[in-house]
Amino acid sequence: MDTTTDLMNGRQRAGVLIDSFRQVNRSMDRLWRHQAESLGLTLVQLMVLRTLTDDSALSLGALAESCQIGCSTMSGVVKRLVESGAVERHRLEDDQRTIAIRLTPKGVELKNQAFGEESCMRNAFLRFLDLSDNDIDAMLALHQKLIEALNRE
Hints:
Oligomer: single chain
Domain HTH marR-type: 14-148
Order of helices and strands: HHHEHHEEHHH
Radius of gyration: 19 Å
Shape: globular
Strand content: 5-15%
CATH architecture: Orthogonal Bundle
CATH topology: Arc Repressor Mutant, subunit A
Number of domains: 1
Structural class: mainly alpha
CATH superfamily: Winged helix-like DNA-binding domain superfamily/Winged helix DNA-binding domain
Protein name: MarR family transcriptional regulator
Number of strands: 3
Organism: Alicyclobacillus fastidiosus
Keywords: DNA-binding, Transcription, Transcription regulation
InterPro entries: HTH_MarR-typ, MarR/SlyA-like, Tscrpt_reg_MarR-type_CS, WH-like_DNA-bd_sf, WH_DNA-bd_sf
């Protein structure tokens, strides 16, 4: 007898795939929001802390691109992080026109709390290691194909 998957037509299978991605997205979003709220941050602020390394700086545009949000939105996020003392703005020595964003000691501490040894984020990320390298590579390849398919529109 045919399996349930065999009986589904293309639209039904696409719907199941979309629902699966929504479930993964909701689970990840819930985890990130919980961690952000526990530190008094927004989800985007937590993403900024994760993106900035402890010893380097990024321009506002590079930070916005890395976090996949607009520069105007990132500007407001950075403003609030500067006001909280988690990041600071400074001009690059080799290009005085460019303002770079870097973590302050407070920002490094927040990042360590969010992603350090005892954090729920680190523990969740470590669960990804239960997947084989082949599974991870296959998933990343499929994700790239889906991104390309969705971006054709």
